Amino acid sequence: MTDSIQHSLYIDGGWIAPTQADEVIEVVNPATEDVVRRLPAASSRDVDAAVEAARRALPAWASTPVSVRARTLLKVAQALRGRRDEIASVITTEMGSPITDSRRVQVMAAVNDLEVTAHIARSFAFQELVDGSLIKRVPMGVVAAIAPWNYPLHQIAAKVGPALAAGCTVVLKPSELAPLDAYLLVEEFERAGLPPGVLNLVVGGSEVGAGLVEHSGVDMVTITGSVGAGVSVAKAAAPGLKRVVAELGGKSAALLAPGADFNRAVASVIDSCFFNAGQTCGALTRLLVPAGMLEQVETLAVDSVRRYRPADPMLDTCRLGPVISDDRVAYVRQVVDQAQASGAEVFGSDDSRLPDRGSFMNPVVVSRAEPTMRVATEELFAPVLTVLGYDDLDDAVSIANSTDFGLSSGVWAGSRSEALEIANRINAGQVNLNGASPSAYVPFGGFARSGLGVEFGRYGLEEFLGYKSIQGVSL
Q1: Is 247 tagged catalytic?
Q2: CA distance 333 to 331
Q3: Catalytic residue among 281, 318, 378, 455, which?
Q4: 2-248+450-470, which class in CATH?
Q5: Which residue among 194, 198, 362, 443 is the one 20 to 30 A from 278 at the CA level?
Q6: pLDDT tens digit string along 405-423?
Q7: pLDDT exceeds 60 at position 322
Q8: For residue 22, what pLDDT is reported?
Q9: What are the domain boundaries of the chain?
Q10: Burial class of residue 19 (count of CB atoms within 10 Å of its CB; 0-12, 13-18, 19+)
Q11: 125 with 34: CB under 8 angstroms?
Q12: What's the CATH number for 252-439?
């Protein structure tokens, strides 16, 4: 990675330096607050060059057999698997995920994304005959892929994989907070023989992202980020009528029906909420329980929280790494303090046990909150679980649906049929019953302010394809 980092950009099949180094991106390790890399940001000229390279490469790549495109993804997936420990170390350094989670999830989820996409593409019906017409699924064109920092490699793979499988070409902009893993991925695509211009890499902040979204040579934008970022992208893409797939925020509810296994459910919700230091868009961050069982649930939650103690994320024993920045920690603490001042009860560890350096915070359970409190309505992106009591199931469903988001949720009940009945009433793009695990073959996306479109499976592949009907082929 030394040469690629030194040159900073990958455009038209070559590693190059930015045309001007007016802005420098500092990559900070949130566990130590040390600057681990300084990267010169791309200029508008570099963005132009990357988009132009992608446009030149588009016709040939779009006509490349699907089998070849899929084989390229599988080659890269295999290479990432072989470099798992190295890549995991990079991800932990740049964004703080515990090293065991980086190996198991951050890297292997990306491997799975590419493998699943390749398998789906091989059997996907790119064309069919309908009433004498040939219906073709054709690539959308040049795609601007804007990735987040919380699952950097996974989210890049979830965008780049299906885009390339569909026959699109890509200009990738990783998060400026965690860009280093993107270099390793692009290196492997280069080694796999991807033609020049099919995948390009530019680094930078919001200005680079805006330049990509607004560029006349870009046909489609796919982004994972905050609601604010998604709204900005949608506005910037609107004049060009570009397709936008935006996976944004969430404030997901876990609804425990009276007959649920509360011991199992509470432990599962804690694991969802605190994984990756709470920095997961689909995390279950609101726990809805019968009002008469609040005390029991509080005891169970606090017992589970004790398993999460902030520590050096490079240690194999670490389960809770840092939050991305001190500013985020300060903001979240202010929201929690406000809830406590308004009558909520706060359970958390002693801050004296925090590491001496880094953007760490203890996991917190905020109970007996009101559904309108900020702690119950805002996506905090930190290890904070809000517990809300409900009167009956109608009240519970109403609370679950009371936010501006609709990304994910969970339902625990005494039977699968009861859980399914409740799930059908919840406004969320994904509902997990009794702790079921997600799958890379099913769509992931949300309603309302949680975004536009979906990712994963054939549904995610279809986002990068348009329809073309040729009439009179068979009469």
Answers
A1: yes
A2: 5
A3: 281
A4: alpha beta
A5: 443
A6: 999 999 999 999 999 999 9
A7: yes
A8: 76
A9: 2-248+450-470, 252-439
A10: middle
A11: no
A12: 3.40.309.10
